[in-house]
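Section: Multi-chain targets

For targets with more than one molecule, the full set of components is provided together so that the structure can be written out for the assembly as a whole rather than chain by chain. Components appear in the order listed by the source. The example entry contains three components.
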Amino acid sequence: MPDVLIDVRNIRTTFHIKEGVVPAIEGVSLQIGRQETVAIVGESGCGKSVTALTIMRLIQSPPGRIEQGAVIFEGEDLLKASEKRMRQIRGNDIAMIFQEPMTSLNPLLTVGFQIEESLILHQSLSKQEAYHKALGMLKRVDIPAPEQRMHEYPHQLSGGMRQRVMIAMALSCSPKLLIADEPTTALDVTIQAQIMILMNSLREEMGMAIMLITHDLGVVANMADRVIVMYAGQVVEEAPVNDLFAHPQHPYTQGLLLSVPRLDARVSKLNTISGTVPNLLYLPRGCRFNPRCSYAQERCQIESPGLTQVNDAHSVRCWFPLGMMGGKKQ
Amino acid sequence: MARYILNRTIQAVLLLLGVSIISFVIMLLAPGGPTDFLIDSSMLSGEDLAAIRTAYGLDRHEAVQYWKWVSRVVVGDFGTSFHTGRPVLEMIMERLPATLALNLIGMVFIYLIALPTGIISAVKQYSVFDYTVTLITFLGQAMPAFWLALLLLYYVGLKVDLPLSGMATYGVEFKEVAFSVWLLDRVRYMVLPLSVVVLTGLAALTRFMRASMLDVIHQDYIRTARAKGLSELRVITRHALRNALLPIVTLFGLTFSVLLSGSVVIERIFSWPGVGQLAVDSILKRDYQVVMAFNMIGAFMVIAGSFLADMLYVVVDPRIKY
Amino acid sequence: MNLPIQKQPSLTLPEMPAEETYLQGVWYRFKRHKLAMISLFFLLLISVAAIAAPQISRHDYREVMPSRSLQAPSREHLMGTDRLGRDVFSRALLGGRISLIVGFTAAFVAVIVGTLVGVVAGYFGGWVDDILMRLTDVFMAFPVLFLLLTIAAVLPKTVTNIVLVIGLTSWPSLARTVRGQFLSLREMEFVEAARSLGVKNYRIALSYILPNTVAPIIVGATLRIGGAILAEAGLAFIGVGIIDPPSWGSILDAGRAVLRQAPWITFFPGMLIFITVLAFNFVGDGLRDALDPKLK
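Its structure, encoded as tokens over all components, is:
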């Protein structure tokens, strides 16, 4: 990766609740290059969203706390930046869209106002200029009758339309990085595809990088350049998309891939990963995945593995990666 | 919209009918009647009593009494009091200003103090300020108004030179003395009762406001606003505040009737010449006509309050259309 | 195993506790609410004192001693004496009995009526719901204080009557809460499943939905005990409360006339009402946190 846009180094974010300290993410490192799309996948509760919110420094505190690490964005450590500096970056250099378009827009403010707001703030546009730019953004995200929509309230729009508004809002200041936190999970399947296609074309057009948080592996295959798999607050595997799909090294990644229903495979029964994500307060000893892993050995229950390189671009957190054992242990 | 208002009006009429029947029945079930409480009723002969009963229609069938009452109320006539012989409405109207003055001013203070306190408490959740406010509101909600009133009376009223009962010094009238003299007089009389109204009313509204604001702060759209890079002040004032104030509109409607009945106990302690005292006296003396009038006016205010809240909603919330 | 073990301090967390029952979880969470625990302890103490009132107090609450009229609190009379020379402490102990009985039973009445109305309206919906909710509206439209006063004034001042009056005027908001819960739970998958298996209506309402509305009902009941104690005191203060044996409110009311000479007669009963209501509110708050772990 020649030109790194954002370099996340070894971050740890915890939540301090009555029951104790929950390490939501632990030693997470990742890099995203300019104009690259990186997908972060994993079950819910694995720390994907917390990673995104840590980058944005939007962790609610209390109870949340970013305890260590660095987020180097264009040479600047965001975790050390002042709150004022962070506000300049949020919405301008790094923008974010969220999972729930139904609740992510303010119900009492017009669509136009909510888009114009960032433009006036970050680009010092006049009200008039902001209106025209916002209208232009609505057109770019293919919203029909944009002039009329500008004056409407979120409840007057469908879920898909609202997510388009969110995208228009996020991209209005031409950010260098767009963090999309499960942007299509709450939408109908047909709308999902439209939104993904829209995001992809806007990415090419505007030349930004996308950090795509999802658990939809179909989306990953179509959109992402690289994939980062997270489990229980840690990165467990990282690889270019084709490599990962062809040669998953971590048993968890393999489980995720096998749990996707395929039309071309003659499988009578859908594979699932048995068990559930561990409670982060009571993590198992050793490898965090060992209680659910069908290949777990004694060592897995005692020592926790570090990330090791499989090749230049592929790394995995496992004592016994599948590749080394032949990869066909099904 | 017109259709909605019509529906609401019909509902309101039915509700008022329900309330009137219930209060009428309660009064009928009461052992003893209003004549028992007339001064020196023992001195009256059986014939005299019968004559009085006839004069007030108490000898008629209950349904007839009720019907006559309803048909008069429809045209705004609540009848005359058994005890004073004066029109009920007149008796209520002459006492209304005192009660409204106390409760309206009280309400203004309560909202002015409780809303900002609740908002700041929510925004600074887990801070010392928040813990303090939460604790004080808990204390406030458990505080019996009459006890607080008596404490103030004893520890403040008797130590500082403040009048302890009534609402004005005799002869200090608006037209007859300098404005400043008049104002100071009224303020001195109002300090203690108003303090009780405000102090006992603060807790519930502060808690409500805090809860509402907390709820809004954790909404997704607030995270969106922060992700845009807006300052925390703008996030709170521009994005959170209006949303958090919405439920307050409903609460305002629901508690609208305290303007009338919020100060009954306080009026009694400070001999405040308001409607609350009149209501209690009339109830104790079985002065049916007055009691019925109070129940009807009270119910009307409850219904009007909720109607007012619903109408306000149309203004403040774009999602609501009737 | 001699392999170097990677030390990760954050991982040395307590072991997952053994499967706990729901009630154990509730108790565990309740215990963490310190004010609620203190309040619970206080309420137990005051209940015992109220039950054992005649054994604890040195004087009969009716014992008139004109020579000891309006004495300030002393070792003999912990809360002083009233105008008739009666021991305020003994009266307050017995008053606690009345106030607590009224509080518990009135809350009980309100919960029974409110739950019943809410369950029936919420489960059956349709016209049943319409009628019951309109009825609830009528009760809500009544200015509660006037209604309380009206009924209390026309009935003999017995404990039963006061309990019924307070209980029957404080159920509507609870009925609405329960109905709301029912309406949403009715559509849940587990209820649908039960219905498709042919479980009878009343059984669905009682064994599938009701247990899930228990938390708001219990919290509502606790808060209503305090509310009822306050309401009774208010009635007594206006002159329509329970006088013999006295409740806290009526002791306080009697002391009002001699406030200047003997402030202790109003101070102590008022304090008891205040602290007791406060304690019930804290316990209610603790229960709310404990019963519904989602609300953290």
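The mean pLDDT of chain B is 85.
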